[in-house]
Amino acid sequence: MKGYARIAAAVPAAAVADINANRERTLALWREADLACANVVVFPELGLSGYSIRDLCMNTALLDACEQSLAQLIESGSSLKPVAIVGIPLRFNHGLYNCAALIHNGTLLGVVPKAYLPNYREFEEARWFRPGFDLPEGATITIGKYKAPLGLDLLFKGSLPDLSVGVEICEDLWVQNAPSSYQVSAGATIICNLSASNFTIGKAELRRLLARSASDRGKCAYVYVAAGPGESSTDVAFDADAFICENGNMLAESHRFQRTGQLIVQDIDLELLAYERRSTTTFGDCARENQMPVRTIRFEAEEVAGMVRQVTRTPFLPRDPATLANRCWEMFEIQSNALATRMAAIGKPKLVLGVSGGLDSTHAALVAAAALDLRGQPRTDLRCITLPGFGTSDGTRDNAEALAHALGASFSQVSISDASRTVLEAIGHPASDGVDNVEQLIDKLRSHPEMGDVTLENVQARLRTLLLMTLANQQGGLVVGTGDLSEKALGWSTYAGDHIAMYDVNAGVPKTLIQFVIRWVANERASNWSDSESLRETLFAILDTPISPELLPAGANGEISQLTEEKIGPYELHDFFLYHLVRHGARPGRILDLARVAFNESQYDDDTLKKWLTVFVQRFFTHQFKRSCTADGPKVGNVALSPRGDWRMPSDAKPDTWLADITAWHPSATTVKDSGGRPLY
Question: Any catalytic annotation for residue 145?
């Protein structure tokens, strides 16, 4: 798929000092990587000889056999498309070097030596090898009929855009100033680490910590391959560990301690990495200050069809339940502490909140109650006000009152229906023609739903805000906003209505996450609050209520007539679009490619995906003017739209380029498979 490179990590079973067996096992997994259409496949450190050969590595017979096997590999793999990176001991200028040999298309592309040789505790590599720093500038090595550059200054650049491979070996990752830090500064987007790290308790977690950190700081992918089964267990043990991470995230892992060879494959998002480097200005600054001269070796790499990569439907939600619970706690603490800080700057304000019985105002009420606790103010300082209009249902109104009582907050009701009818009558709105009261107006709207236009809807939203602001003035209060991140992205708010608040606690929380935070409060926090059982029951009732602005009258049977997601599209799609557009700067065609992988066609077919992405892009552009003057509110995640913080965009920008990309999109073949330690093909 466009913008990706397919990378494989191969862990063959090792045969100590059996060069022929190691070569054939390497070749077998290389062929498997070729069937998987990989662009690069990485093997373990000293894989051709076995890492644990110790003093045998100095033996002439073994070294001759390794060089002969390398030449045979080059010939045998001449028709295979992936670049193979193989570990081998090589002689050069009276010394021996622990090397990675890169093979492709019947040639030896280059050889990278190990820079740092561990010589502590169980390690004694300085007994046999010389560090790569000892090599002369511009060195080359000849192995049989093959001659190639040799050194720490090599980068391997593929013909795919932004595909650039750097190589380091085992211990190089563990030092405070790793070779890969210079390689990424020189442009490497994929770092390959050939390792033979032995296993001790807890070491697998430490490897991942180091590699994830390197990939996050380097805005790159990091491919780590440790020695497989069969290495000597004389004094140490090996666990066949291999994994691939990208930009700080773990993508795929092998099955540790598996006794047979295995291959993991993953597609690396090169476009994402390029965007991260452009948008993280300090990456470029650091790269400029840490330059190294490099020799660039080029190789051909084909764009492959489909995708071998898991794409989550809910990018704002961690898949691991424990991590999700921790994120909910962090988010709730950010919101409640931020509101408490704003309150402290004012004094001891009351908190004025319009409660509808929906998700957003419920979440804001929970945050407000927690902020009052932090400030040592009574819960009665939370003034929950329900403002029923033409479409308010009994269920949502009752949920709003139950929520206020369960929290120990003050509760009152102020109907906006009469005031809304008066305003509509004053401007000559057709819905107010010939009606003397609200009941008649509602009956008329049921008979003539076409009269329920944006004017009729928005007058209610603006009157609600007017009343809340007026009550805040009267009571010395602060109006707490309820609009969430998803609504701000879509402009799903009334300008000078629910668009306005004195502090916007939900501004950084996407709709798909708000539900989980409310559920977390119900399960984890409610037991410590005043009326815990009633609060839990109310919160779960609210979670079961359809999302609706309730601005148009309910049906005669009381059913909600106006469902938000029927009008603007599913929030799970919009949050998906928002994340990839803002967080990764993805073009629409790429977003659709990812959506096609993430969502089953039975959920959303191609036309449906295009339809709702079109809606998202149009609304995102045309409603920027609302975000440009939005209220203060805390950033809680890695996507935010505050004009003072993360997102600065002109209100009159044109979406035509983005819309054209949507129109031109055609789905490619998509294949999603779990590549964790098992062959894919």
Answer: no
Residue among 37, 66, 170, 192 flagged as catalytic = 170
The domain of 518 spans 319-555
Question: Are both 548 and 604 inside the same structural domain?
Answer: no
45, 67, 125, 457: which is the annotated catalytic residue?
Answer: 45
Spatial contact of 88 and 129, defined as CB atoms under 8 Å apart: no
Q: Is residue 563 part of a domain?
A: no
Q: How confident is the model at residue 671 (pLDDT cuts 50, 70, 90)?
A: low
Specify whether the CB–CB gap between 592 and 667 falls below 8 A. Answer: yes
**Which of these three, 299, 330, 350, is where a domain ends?**
299
Greater confidence, 559 or 146?
146
Q: What is the pLDDT of residues 44-101, one digit of tens each?
A: 999 999 888 888 989 999 999 999 999 999 999 999 999 999 999 999 999 999 999 9
Q: Are both 27 and 147 inside the same structural domain?
A: yes
- Smallest CA-to-CA distance from 127 within 164, 95, 84, 152 is with 95
Among the candidates 555, 579, 608, a domain finishes at: 555
Other CB atoms within a 10 A radius of the CB of residue 327 amount to 20
Indicate if 114 belongs to the active site: yes
Left if phi > 0, otherwise alpha if psi is -120 to 50, otherwise beta: which for 53? alpha
Is 421 domain-assigned?
A: yes
Place of tokens 């029951």: 537
Residue 203 pLDDT class (50, 70, 90 cuts): confident
Pairing relationship of beta strands 249-253 and 107-113 according to DSSP bridges:
unpaired
Residue 559 annotated in active site: no
Residues of 118-139 as b/e, b for ≥16 C-beta within 10 angstroms? Answer: beeeeeebeebbbbbeebeeeb
**582 CB-side CA count, 13 A:** 30
Q: Is residue 389 one of the residues assigned to a domain?
A: yes
Residue 115: φ, ψ to 5°: -85, -45
The three state secondary structure string of 592-613 is HHHHHHHCCCCCCCHHHHHHHH
Cβ(264)–Cβ(280) below 8 Å = no
Quick check: is 487 in a domain?
A: yes
Instruction: Extract the tokens encoding 256.
Output: 């540790």
Express the helix, strand and coil content of the chain in percent, nearest 5 each: 45, 15, 40
Q: Are residues 369 and 280 in the same domain?
A: no
Kindly report, residue by residue over 265-312, the tens digit of the pLDDT: 999 999 999 999 999 999 999 999 998 899 999 999 999 888 999 999
Do residues 56 and 46 touch, judged by C-beta distance below 8 A?
A: no
- Residues 457, 606, single domain; the answer is no
pLDDT tens digits, 523-558: 888 877 766 788 999 999 998 877 665 545 555 454
Q: What is the CATH number of the domain that holds 585?
A: 1.10.10.1140
User: What is the count of structural domains for the chain?
Assistant: 3
- pTM for this entry: 0.90
CATH number, domain with residue 236 = 3.60.110.10
Does residue 655 surpass a pLDDT of 80?
A: yes
Contacts for 20-23: CB closer than 8 Å, 24+ residues apart: 20/65, 20/69, 22/47, 22/48, 22/49, 22/50, 22/69, 23/48, 23/69, 23/72, 23/73
